[in-house]
Every structure is written in structure tokens, then in C-alpha cells.
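To whoever picks this up:

The nightly regression suite flagged PF03932 family protein CutC as changed. Nothing in the input moved, so I suspect the structure step. Input below, exactly as stored in the fixture:
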Amino acid sequence: MTLTKFSPVIEVCAFSLESCLAAEKGGAKRIELCAAMYEGGTTPSAGLISLAKQQTSIEIHAMIRPRGGDFCYADDEIEVMKADIQVVKSLGCDGIVLGVLQKDGRVNIAQTKELVELAKPLQVTFHRAIDMARDYFEALEDIIEAGCHRILTSGQKNTVMEGIEDLTELVKRADGRIQIMAGSGVNVQNAQTLASTGVNALHLTGKSSRDSEMVFRKEGIAMGGLSEVPEYDIVYSDADKIRAVVDLL
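Regenerated output under the current build:
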């Protein structure tokens, strides 16, 4: 009997149209489309979603996050999220990505359920807000109860290799009831190790950067107010880095 090798789906986190095109060229099967890289991802613009849908043929899942910071949202922010879900549905997205916590660090099941229902028939990924929850394994059960299809996690650590022990246990406890996707620091060096945990997907950026084409450069000012964020550094997803992971698996 021939055994079928299981290969996790490769998802690319993209912040630009250029990166969406690179994701498809590199062999990824899915894109998580975001804005605001340095805030961990917020809802992308309608224009970016529209062009990404027009110019690629793989799945696009849009981030639904009204701001950076924590994942405990006021009522008006939840209304913004609802409106954004309607917009991304109208633009033909295949799924959405979100995460909502209560003040006490538990998953907000009621709000998540409401957003999941609104998103139907789109798939819903609960993002790394789970890594900020007070109880990782309690959050797993709450996310399943809320009706999400997938969890993106780094195993409660800054990078997924640091969190691989908890990630492995999460896969075991999920027991096929929900998909588990590993993200944060995924690359060609660790992809096979992460795949061996039994995760359904690997989430990466395939990040590279290049210098801006600007000749004139204003010194002593930072547009985001953070001097450590390079003003003249263009970050993008590299198709070759993505392809290296795809081919490895």
C-alpha cells in the first residue's frame, strides 16, 4: 500500500499587491491579506482586495481588525468589523481573519459567533489573539464553540519554534475538530519540523526588503513616530523564499 504524504497548506501573509503576486508565483495556496505590517496587521483597503482578486487565482482571506493594539474591542469597533466583513464579502474574498478577546483574557465567544455568522459562507480564521489569551487550551475550546474554521498560532511565544511544545499539544487537543496553522518565524529551515507536529497549514511572509528608489531623503523625521521603523526600506514577500518552503514539503 502506498502512503500519501501529508503536506500542510502554505499561506502567505501579504501587505501589498506585489506580495500577493509573489505568493501565487511561489506556489502558496492561500493569502492572508493585511494592512499595517508594523501593527501586526489590520484590515486591508478595498482597492488592494479588489486588485488582488483580479490578478491572482488563489484564496484570499482578509484581515478584519479595525486597529492595532489589543484585541478587546468597543461596540463601535465591532460595528466597523461588521461593515468590513460585508465589504470583503462583496469583493469576493474566500475568508476572513479575526480575533476578539474579553477584558479578562478569555475569547469573546458571543462577539466571535456573531462575526462568524455574518461572514458565512466565508471561512473564518481566529488569529494570534489566541496567543494573548489567559488560557491557551481553554481558548481552543471557545474558538471551536464560536464556529471558526481555523486557528493561527505561534504557540504563545514570539516565534513558533519557541512555542512548538504548546503548538504540538494544541494540535493533539484539537483532534481534527478545527484546523491549526503555525505562524511567526516560519521559514525553509524549520518548515519540516513544524509540519511534523501535524499542523494543517504553515503561515509565512517570505520576507525580503529593498532600498527605496527615493533620491532625496528627509532626515530627522519618522512618519509613524518610531525612529526604529526604516522610512526608506521596502518590505515585500519573496517568491523564491516561498517556493523553497513549498518545494521542501
